[in-house]
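Next comes one such specimen:
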Amino acid sequence: MLWEGECLVYAQAPALTGEEIEALLAEARVARFCSLNEDGSIHAAPVWYKYEGGRIALGTPRASRKAGNVRRNGNVTVLVDVEGPPSKGVLIRGRAEVSEYKFLEAVSLFERYMSREEAERLARGLPGISEWVKITVEPERVASFDYAKDEAYRAALQG
C-alpha cells in the first residue's frame, strides 16, 4: 500500500497508521472530491464514494463538472475526514479517470449508504435522470492527520 512508509506528515498533527487509514477510508461516509477547472480554479464537491482495491470510486453524471474536469486533467485530490474535535483524515492526491458505470458497480457503492433493495432501485432510476459515469482515483501521494494523537491539541481542548 502507498501509505506504508511514504506518508507525508502534517506538522500540526500526527499521521494515521496504514491500518488506521484503511479503516477510515472504509468507514467514512463522505469525501470531498477536488478537480481543476478550466480557468485554473479548484472545483470541490462532497461525494459518496467507495474505497475498493486501494482506489477511490464514485459516480457522477457524464455532463458534471467533475467528469469534465477529469477528462481534461486527471489530477485530483480527495479528502476523507471525520469532523472533530478532534478531527482526523486522509488527503489523497492522484490520477483519476472516467469510465462507464455498470449497474452492479453503482449498487455496490450505494449499498454503503442504504439497503440492497434501495441501492438497486436508485441504480435503476438514475439513468432516467442523467447518463452516469464512474470516476476512479489511483492514489499517488497520501497524507494523513489525527489530532487525537496530538498531546498539545488534547491539552488545549481540556483547557
User: Anything to note?
Assistant: The radius of gyration is 17 Å. Residues 8-147 form a domain with the Pnp Oxidase; Chain A fold (CATH 2.30.110.10). The mean pLDDT is 90.
